[in-house]
Design goal:
The structure holds 2 protein chains of 2 kinds.
Chain A: H1 2-20, H2 45-50, H3 56-59, H4 61-69, E1 70-77, E2 80-90, E3 93-96, H5 98-101, E4 104-110, E5 116-125, E6 131-135, E7 154-159, E8 167-178, E9 187-191, E10 203-205, E11 211-218, E12 225-229, H6 230-239, E13 242-244
Antiparallel strand pairs in A: 1-2, 1-4, 2-3, 3-6, 4-5, 5-6, 5-13, 7-8, 7-10, 8-9, 9-12, 10-11, 11-12
Chain B: H1 13-28, H2 46-188, H3 192-220
Helix pairs in contact in B: 2-3
Classes of the chains: A alpha+beta, B mainly alpha.
Chain lengths: 251, 221
Amino acid sequence: MRRLAALLTLVAVAGLLSGCGVRASEPPEEEPTFAVPKLEPVAGDVPEAVRVEIPRLAKDSAERRARKLTVRVRNVSCLGIGVGSGFAIAEDVLVTNRHVLAGAETVEVSTWDGRTLPATAAEVGVLGDLGVARVDGTLPQVGAYGAQPRPGDEVTVVGYPGGEELTLSPGTVVDLVDGKPLGIPGRVMRLTSRVVPGNSGGPVLDRRGKIAGVVYAYQLGTGLGLAIPVDTLRTLTREGGYEPVPPCGSD
Amino acid sequence: MADPPWTPPPSGPRALAERLAAAEHDSAAPDAATPRQQPPPPAPPRGRGWLLVAVIVALVATVVGAGSAYVAWDNRNRAGDWEERAFRLERNTEQLNGLLVERSTQLNERTRELNKLAATVTRQQNALTRSESDVESLSDRQRELAAEKARVEDSRAALAIQSGALEAVAGELVDCNAGLFQLFGFLVNGDRASADAIVDDVSLDCQRAESSLGEYRTRYG
């Protein structure tokens, strides 16, 4: 038995040795060659071009729209010349204040680009201090109504104070108060924006350049600007309640 | 059953002599119960051992040879596989290399175009900035001119109103003057009745003209 076991062990060792005796051939060691062309460097103009600044025209487009939107309204009456502001709600229709149109024998509208458009028709609101006029020509920019402003909202009053050049007066909405004591149906918006004679009828614009109201006065005690908010404006514009412009000296 | 109590062997020279005698007796007369020793088997013949070794060596050689042959055959197959794989990889490498060259060329072309485009954008941006500045200046100037024009139109409208008022005053003064001329004519001709007939109207016209002139001066200075 011992000899048989030794024999088998010997055979097994021989088998193992025979398996390890010859090694497999190596895979080819030749490395593939890559003839990659040298890449072009990116010119320095590219990063500069990537950092293109937003053109100021586009950046200030809201301001430009505001300038285009707002018109200067000249009231020629028996008492002389009165100047106010207004803004377009249609291509040939503008909104302003009743007291800007009151007593007018002739109404003329000056646009930002120097055109003068005569008004062919004008009416004033019976209840609120609003007036509308139709002009013979096309107004430069038609405004879009925004949302009803809330206290704390940033707004901009645009107009021709004193009949001089157009100004933009930023401010915030202080509150919305009852308009009845101030002669306005609905509510009245009080603003911190600077409002002086000549701003009357001008638009109050929100941060997006949408119409948030119409300036009509300023409060003597507080110096705050007073404006008809857009909801009241829309209601009055939609429901009408207009009458012919009162003759000179009657209003 | 308990073992009998152990007693120490007797000691002394006599006891020793007895023990030696007993030992000799044991070796001279073996016990009948003890098996008898068998003689060793006969050794195998020396020639059979060599034969066994030769068989073993042949067997080992056969196993080693067979194993080696198998391993060689297997390695050859593997080598063939490796070679085929290497060729395939080389073909893939060549294709990839070609693709890489093509893509690199395209990338270079795109980069050149991008560089040109960037230069164009930069130039146009500069031009736009200049143009924008010009437009801004022109726009400002346009607004100034528009405001100036509006003010001039205000003045024109105001002058038109003033002119209308002055015209009205002038008409009243003309009426007054005409009445006065007529009145003086009557007086020079001695037509007192006619003079008396118009004197009140002339006086009223002149008062109205004077009032209008005063009002005009008050309003327009």
